[in-house]
Amino acid sequence: MLNVAELLDCVKKEERASLTEAESKILLSAYGIPVVEEAIVTEEDDAASQAQKIGFPVVLKGHGARLTHKTERGLVKVNLRSDFEVIQAYRQIKEAAGEDWEGCLIQPLVEGKREFAAGLVRDPQFGPTVMFGLGGVFTEALGDATFRIAPFSETQAEVMLDEIKSSKLLGAFRGEEKADRDALKQTLLGLARLGLEHPEIKEVDINPLIVTPDGKVKAVDALVVLGENADAPIGPALSEEEQEQWIQETRQALHRAFNAESVAVVGATKPNISGFAGMFGCMHLFGFKGRLYPINPKLDEIYGHKAYPNLTALPEKVDLVIVSVPARVVPGVLRECVATGNKAVHIFTAGFKESGEEEGVRLQKEMKQIAVEGGLRVIGPNCMGFYVPNRRMLTWQMASKKSGPIALISQSGGNAQEITHYATGRYGIGFNKVVSYGNALTVESADFLDYLAGDDETEIITMYLEGLKNGRRFLKLAEKTNKKKPILIYKGGLSETGAQAVSSHTGALAGGPKIWHSFFRQTGCVLMESVEELAEVAMAFHYLPETKGPRTAVLGYGGGAGVSVADNCAKLNLALPDFSEDLLGKLREIIPPAGTIIRNPIDAMIAYFDFDVMGKIFKLMAESDEIDNVLMSIPLDWLFNKEEGGGYIETLTRYVAEEGVKHLGGKPFIATWRQYMPSEKIRSWAPVMEKILLDAGIPVYEGMARGINAMAKVTAYYDFHAKNK
Known about the structure:
Elements: H1 4-13, H2 21-29, E1 39-41, H3 44-54, E2 58-63, E3 76-80, H4 83-97, E4 103-108, E5 114-123, E6 127-134, H5 139-142, E7 145-149, H6 154-163, H7 181-197, E8 201-211, E9 217-219, E10 222-226, H8 240-258, E11 262-266, H9 278-286, E12 291-295, E13 301-302, E14 305-306, E15 320-323, H10 330-340, E16 344-347, H11 358-374, E17 377-379, E18 385-388, E19 393-394, E20 406-410, H12 413-427, E21 431-436, H13 445-453, E22 460-465, H14 471-481, E23 487-491, H15 505-509, H16 512-523, E24 526-528, H17 531-543, E25 552-556, H18 559-571, H19 581-590, E26 596-597, E27 602-604, H20 606-609, H21 611-623, E28 629-635, H22 636-640, H23 647-664, E29 669-674, H24 680-683, H25 685-695, E30 700-702, H26 704-723
Parallel strand pairs: 11-12, 11-15, 15-16, 16-17, 20-21, 20-22, 22-23, 23-24, 25-27, 25-28, 28-29, 29-30
Antiparallel strand pairs: 1-4, 2-3, 2-4, 5-6, 5-8, 6-7, 8-9, 8-10, 13-14, 18-19, 18-21, 26-27
Helix pairs in contact: 3-4, 6-7, 8-13, 10-11, 12-17, 13-14, 17-26, 19-21, 21-23, 23-25
């Protein structure tokens, strides 16, 4: 059996950056990857002899430690059909390779119209990541590839095969048998194991991975590239026991901070000329329920609270220290936190690593050393910190005191404020815990996710992320937590920024955005693309029961709108099924034919003016096993004139919220509304309608597109977990 470690050590001792093609294939074969049978020959007569053993036609390639781009150098000869052609090719390759020549590889010509590629690349945040895609000359040209972060399940490997646009080529194709999917899955899983077991391997490129006419899979070309310290960062160099202790102590510190009974604010001030109350003022004015200690040696009191010269002078250790002093002073404050045993610290101050200035970078490095050695759990620097309505904790201004089942982790303080303002102000969504964590000195996104996973008050976790410090830990936590609590992530920086400097096709395809998209496919976490979408989809998860599938019925108003609905559903994989003849017959019995289109969407104006009809439609949808979910569009313009002043809009809405949904029997239901005429009188009814529906626990959106998107995200979440149990 091949000793992989010995092979890699030998290559490293020779100071080579990559394995030869022959060595690469031997290594891959040890991990269950089907490679083409081949031999190394160093004499032309031996080449001819081996060709006869293999059987014509054959392929001849240059072999040597320095021969990594053979095609470009004319070192690959294919479709050789006689001893004469083999010997001629051998001589040409040897001459073209020059001093780099060490022999030739001879292998059978593997024929097949279908060429794929597979590979391994080491992502800076997530570590070993496996690629599968279209191969041959189209690999980089078309970029038809998908990724998974190792380790992943056989189910995920199966899904990878179907994710690429050219997946139809894996089926029976133009007289050729369907591809051996088991061999392809084992190739992907083998690459994942290789990446996990050998961190010195930086990249693997298998291209082409040919599917033969009888469906067999063969890797006919391969490259393995080595690199130093190739693994993704995994945090402090601690033993497993030390890491677990650090995590446990971090959970405890976060629990004390989120549920603080006592808070000290270093650098507390009275309101400045701009009117900003400062960190201390924000906590005081929001009505913090615990004990507040302002730290400022130049003041006697602030907002009626006795001021203290430093942390040492406090009558007790506090649950949280908030630091709001000039950047140059912060290291000294952290030393005092260590000395006084105040372990949980929020640093509001900015001007550190994020500034890009040499002094800022130096200060953050100094702070990191103090915090780690002193066991401090630092939120920040450069962040807004905490918002906990139940404790009346707030380090910014103007927030709702309403609490709810949703938590928010945000790298950006501005986004934390914007998300909570929008979600609560527009949709009445309550947050129980919100934290902005900025530069993440010693506490980062994975730590907050770990804490919220076990928090009984939190049912839905929302996040705004830009980057990660410990991608592999975050991935593991997300996979585990998302099974119990939906995780909705607005990921900043997902635009294409170009690939890193790499040596292979695999690496050239593996830009950061593609790896992040694989993270979402792999974990089932729900990708958000805006602040507004994050709030809208969180509302749907909050109010909707578990969806059983994507099949959706739509009650609408207007034929043109129905076409738009169909298009939007198709884009988001939300099914808009045709009703069976049986269901159509039942609908025809209750809906008059004049002015209606009885199909899906149901275009039936009469339902909006005859609640008996609407109720019966809802009841049919509830009882039908053809439908999983129901969407409704409420046209404000057309309903406004039903009663003078528009009061009928409220009448209809109350029916839907109070009686109509009873007919649905608990089937997932979303209401949407639209307005076309530019009338303030009509629009004034929108907030009335929304409040009635939201108070009844019905998600409501302006525009069918938003409602469809929310329903699609929820159904995709439950579908993912149904398939990945």
